[in-house]
From TrEMBL:
Residues of the full protein shown: 489 to 739 of 746
Name of the molecule in the record: EAL domain-containing protein
Highest taxon of source: Bacteria
Subcellular location: Membrane
Domain EAL: 1-251
Amino acid sequence: KELADEFTHALDRDELVAFFQPQFDANTLDIAGVETLARWDHPKKGLLAPNRFLDVAEKLGRTGDMDRLILQKALFELTRWDSLGMQIPRVSVNISARRLAQANLLAELSELPIAKGRLCFELLETISFNDLQPVLKEIIPAVKKLGIEIEIDDFGTEHASIVSLLRFEPRRLKIDREIIKPIIASPSQRRLVSSIIEIGRSQNIDIVAEGVETMEHAKILKDLGCHILQGYALARPMTSEQLIEFCCIKD
Ligand code: G
Ligand code: G
Ligand code: MN
Ligand code: NA
């Protein structure tokens, strides 16, 4: 309740911060992109993770405004990384259903300087069945026409059918960490991941694994043919400054 009052101020006072988690090519371990993750730098409570404020934002109807702000910050940093000569192929942002439904979304996006393939929207599986028909039919194709890639996030955890998801013709599917975690101990779980990769291959869709918490996970996923890896074993979410440092050390 209290947080709800404060969140409105947080947006006005620019207390939301963008963190970035690198994603890696499974074969070369080069950076393939970074995912932008919102944090709230609360004046008293310190840095809050999205699970502390996403519900609040949604109840206030401000998730779309939050996503717009985080996108601005992500593109600002991408320009900075480019100017520093860093090799960050693309930046991903998480996009809520509310943001996709904003009437001025396409007009706003077309004003932004977005080179083809450098920006990716991560959409939760749930958008394919939560009464957003216009999104399915019109908005997503229009977003793609602007050169923005679409990735399905948390794949395998919700109840969306594969058919409904493939209608988006996403560039990538991101397998949820709850599916990735057990692959070391469980051959059956490895086969499941392998099947998802096979579906991707049949549709020309790259597969991202999240929750890569050990190098053993990374090795198995690479051997299974997974394309992109994201997780604590490789890099944690970090500030833009930390990312700049991270890339300097890596080169
Ligand atoms: O960073 P963390 O793992 O705590 O994030 C948890 C979840 O919060 C992410 O999986 C993502 O779906 C969601 N999230 C993070 N940043 C944003 C954002 O800027 N907008 C929206 N809509 N969701 C976000
Ligand atoms: O799907 P979503 O957008 O929530 O995925 C990103 C979230 O996953 C971020 O909140 C990030 O903090 C978290 N995350 C990233 N890497 C790992 C990991 O290796 N293990 C776990 N448990 N969470 C991770
Ligand atoms: Mn995500
Ligand atoms: Na996810």
